[in-house]
Amino acid sequence: MMQPDLFTQPYPNSPGFADTDTSIDAAQDMEPKAPRLRQMVLDALYSHGGLTADEAAGRLEKDILSIRPRFSELVALDLIANTGLKRPNKSGKKAIVWAVKDQQDSQLAVNVLGAK
Q1: Residues 61-72: pLDDT tens digits?
Q2: Residues in CB range of 1: below 8 A, 6 or more apart
Q3: Which of 3, 29, 98, 114 satisfies CB 3.0 to 4.6 Å to 35 for a cystine?
């Protein structure tokens, strides 16, 4: 399904959503917060050299449910990459360790992501 034109920018610059009212409401609520959270994730990855989504959420003291989707958006924006490493997450399952593709991207991302 094509996403309705609910946001100022299409995914991945705005949160994605499923075709349900609750998902659309959640995406609309997250839209003004997502750019800053994406920048926070990029900064954490840049500072620590690579993190899982769970590790980033812990370091940022944010709920994993607000952080994990930002990783998908950053991958879609081609700003982060899979390092090939895996570490256990809270559930004990192996999770991908992500890193900034190019350290310069972290600085340029402020303009790309619209973070303030």
Answers
A1: 999 999 999 999
A2: 19
A3: 114
